[in-house]
Amino acid sequence: MSDVNTSTAADGGSAATLTRLEQEGEIAADYLEGLLDIADLDGDIDMDVEGERASVSIIGDTASRDLNKLVGRDGEVLEALQELTRLAVHRETGERSRLMLDIAGFRARKRAELTKLGTDAAAEAKETGEPVKLDPMTPFERKVVHDAVAAAGLRSESEGEEPHRRVVVLPA
């Protein structure tokens, strides 16, 4: 039911790190392939190494809406599946995983939206000279926004407690 593609984007990491991250990707792919079989869903599994983390994506036919069930409302099911996949990797390796899971391109689209949000908030903070407080976000979302703000030349910080933790963009 599913095909597995592997690619690595070496980011200056050591061979041992890449090997460990590739192993995480393989374990995750096996786990997710079993999940797809149980759920009777079609999807291809693509593995990559991005920076210092393994990245696994489940890609399906764009005409099929089945994989959207694995994303859920606002990515809630995707977040849960990512945690379960990280637990499966931990069970096999004995090490905590920072693996990133994407399904049907949800995270890729979300990353583009959040990058624009961070860039726009940085522009607003520069223009007004006032801090810009954003709505509460997940850790993944905050990380993307922090990166976009840093790329725009400003600082940002997180404030509040989960699940109401938010990014505040600070003026220069």
UniProtKB/TrEMBL annotation:
Organism: Actinacidiphila acididurans
Sequence ranges assigned to domain R3H in this UniProt record: 108-172
PANTHER family reported in the protein's UniProt record: PROTEIN JAG, RNA-BINDING PROTEIN KHPB
Pfam family, one: R3H
Cross-referenced InterPro entries: Jag_KH, KH_dom-like_a/b, KhpB, R3H_dom, R3H_dom_sf, R3H_KhpB
SUPFAM superfamilies, per database record: R3H domain
Name listed for the protein in its UniProt record: KH domain-containing protein
Gene3D superfamilies named in the record: 3.30.300.20, R3H-like domain
Signal peptide: none
